[in-house]
């Protein structure tokens, strides 16, 4: 398959490197990623200035690679419209440094890049890995992504589906399996630490902790139990539960 690989951690991120090494063993890969860190940028795109695209050489990677001074969604759009000739069979976004569980998907640049692919009717996968300090699980996450790509291809995954994958930071033998599940509820207890600069302007630094609701059959719950989670997503935000009720207003 021809795969577009992107991320939100930047073109030189170790997670992207590890995934590229694994993917190009089996597929034709083109890499297009932000020139710098773009975490939590959501689904933003650049419209107020031109985008700068540079060819780069990633040491030990055979695939073509481009850095783009925009967002993950910009990278997908630019690749589809200008950089890659012919059909792209799948877009893979990651490996993100840190998980994208529950409502994290709203803010995630990693997931948004995958969703942008689905806007272009290209199947996509977002891959994220838990980390602590210098420890990560990129090796397992990369091999899991390749395995799931093969499954998705064999089962004719729809072109409007995004598969959101999260890998816990546990040894391979301690991973309990893979759970397909819905997204859970993950919010943050934000603390705004106030200070002032030399000119007296207020500065607010956001700090805080995760506040998970441990609902059953969700990615948040299964992830904490040691499972790799996979959740099918779709960009249609329509609330079908109440659409008929809203129609009655008019």
From TrEMBL:
Q: How is the cofactor bound?
A: Binds 1 divalent metal cation per subunit.
UniProt EC number = 3.1.3.5
Keyword annotations: Cytoplasm, Hydrolase, Metal-binding, Nucleotide-binding
Q: Which reaction does it catalyse?
A: a ribonucleoside 5'-phosphate + H2O = a ribonucleoside + phosphate
Give the source's domain of life in one word.
Bacteria
Q: Where is the protein found, in the record's own terms?
A: Cytoplasm
Provide the primary localization: cytoplasm
Is Ribosomal protein among this UniProt entry's keywords? no
Requisite cofactors: a divalent metal cation
* Top enzyme class: hydrolase
In this chain the Survival protein SurE-like phosphatase/nucleotidase domain maps to 3-189
Please tell me where a divalent metal cation binds in this chain. 8-9, 39, 96
- Family listed: Belongs to the SurE nucleotidase family.
Biological role stated in the UniProt entry = Nucleotidase that shows phosphatase activity on nucleoside 5'-monophosphates.
Family annotation (NCBIfam families)? PRK00346.1-4, PRK13933.1, surE
PANTHER family per UniProt? 5'-NUCLEOTIDASE SURE, 5'_3'-NUCLEOTIDASE SURE
Q: What is this protein called?
A: 5'-nucleotidase SurE
Q: Which organism is it from?
A: Clostridium rhizosphaerae
Classification from the root reads: Bacteria, Bacillati, Bacillota, Clostridia, Eubacteriales
- Gene symbol here is surE
């Amino acid at each position: 398959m021809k795969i577009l690989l992107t991320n939100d951690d930047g073109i030189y991120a170790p997670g992207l490197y590890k995934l590229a090494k694994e993917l190009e063993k089996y597929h034709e890969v083109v890499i297009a990623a932000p020139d710098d860190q773009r975490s939590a940028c959501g689904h933003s795109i650049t419209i107020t200035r031109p985008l700068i695209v540079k060819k780069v050489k990633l040491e030990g990677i055979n695939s073509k690679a481009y850095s783009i001074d925009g967002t993950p969604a910009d990278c997908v759009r630019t690749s589809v419209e200008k950089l890659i000739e012919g059909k792209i069979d799948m877009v893979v976004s990651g490996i993100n440094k840190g998980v994208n569980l529950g409502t994290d998907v709203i803010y995630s640049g990693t997931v948004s890049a995958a969703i942008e692919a689905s806007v272009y009717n290209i199947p996509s996968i977002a891959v994220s890995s838990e980390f602590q300090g210098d420890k990560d699980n990129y090796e397992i996450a990369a091999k899991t992504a390749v395995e799931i790509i093969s499954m998705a291809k064999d089962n004719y995954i729809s072109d409007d589906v995004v598969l959101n994958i999260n890998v816990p930071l546990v040894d391979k033998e301690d991973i309990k399996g893979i759970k397909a599940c819905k997204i859970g509820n993950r919010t943050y207890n934000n603390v705004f630490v106030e200070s002032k600069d030399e000119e007296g302007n207020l500065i607010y630094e956001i700090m805080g902790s995760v506040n998970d609701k441990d609902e059953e059959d969700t990615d948040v719950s299964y992830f904490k139990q040691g499972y790799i989670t996979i959740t099918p997503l779709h960009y249609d935000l329509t609330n079908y539960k109440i659409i008929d009720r809203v129609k009655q207003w008019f």
